[in-house]
Design brief:
Keywords: Membrane, Transmembrane, Transmembrane helix. This is Alkaline shock response membrane anchor protein AmaP. It comes from Corynebacterium glaucum. The chain is α+β, with helices and mostly antiparallel strands. Among the domains are: about 70 residues, no CATH class; about 90 residues, 2-Layer Sandwich (Alpha-Beta Plaits). It has six helices and seven strands. The strands form three sheets. A three-stranded mixed sheet has the order 5-6-7. Strand 5 and strand 6 form a beta hairpin. The longest helix is centred in the first third of the chain and has 28 residues. The radius of gyration is 33 Å and the shape is elongated. The protein starts with 8 loop residues before the first strand and ends in a 23-residue tail after the last helix.
Length: about 230
């Protein structure tokens, strides 16, 4: 993905600024792929806060020590406990736990960031999220077969759509073909899976006609009563 979309090169003039053995690549260059936050981000923030707190405690100890004032040390009891503690099963267990925790933190710092977007097959850098694909799938399915009971769920590899049975017996094939054609512009189109649900009776007329349930009400075609028809 880091390679330029248009690999055609053009010669540049041989001068002191542009040597003849160099060529510029023209055309749009796709940007880097959007990624999720690294796993070590929040760990680094938490560890930074803990280290800042520890630095504040040490600064307090040094301040009172060099001022020559009497004070209750916060670190001395900890040092005395560590220096006088005997090695037993609990100490070994805590040491193993701390070692495993440090190893886990070390591995987490090298984990790659998760892939969260899907690239559109275009010279420009265009990326979409799986949730956008799911919304587009619901809208396309509703435009194709109508109905309101349509649910879509997508990730970077699969697209699952649930539709009501319209009685034709081919609704799953029509929806799958429509969605496959709709998302063929993606660099890696998701695998489309259509699940047909049994038809249910709905009190919403838009579920049968395919009308927009959020559309404003239409005016009633009825004549306005004349003055003689108004009850006084």
């Amino acid at each position: 993905m880091t390679a330029p979309a248009n690999s055609q090169t053009y010669p540049v003039p041989d001068d002191e600024f542009f040597p003849a053995d160099m060529a510029r690549q023209a055309g749009p260059h796709p940007g880097t792929e959007p990624r999720s936050n690294p796993a070590a981000r929040w760990l680094a923030i938490i560890i930074s806060i803990l280290l800042l707190s520890l630095a504040g405690v040490i600064a307090r100890e040094l301040w009172y020590r060099y001022q020559g004032e009497t004070y209750d040390s916060w670190l001395e009891p900890v040092f005395e406990l560590l220096g006088s503690a005997t090695v037993n099963g609990w100490a070994v267990t805590i040491g193993i736990f701390i070692s495993l925790l440090g190893l886990w933190l070390l591995i987490t710092s090298f984990l790659p960031r998760g892939r969260t977007h899907m690239r559109v097959n275009s010279p420009a850098s265009i990326w979409v999220r799986p949730v956008d694909v799911a919304r587009k799938a619901s809208h396309t399915t509703r435009s194709e077969i109508g109905g309101a009971n349509i649910r879509s769920r997508a990730d970077r590899k699969r697209l699952n759509v649930q539709v009501e049975d319209d009685g034709t017996g081919t609704v799953d094939q029509r929806v799958a073909a429509t969605l496959s054609n709709e998302f063929s512009g993606l660099e890696t189109p998701p695998a489309v899976s259509v699940k047909v649900l049994p038809q249910t009776q709905s009190t919403n007329p838009s579920a049968k006609t395919g009308a927009d349930p959020y559309a404003p009400p239409q005016p009633i075609d009825a004549p306005y009563p004349g003055p003689q028809e108004i009850q006084r």
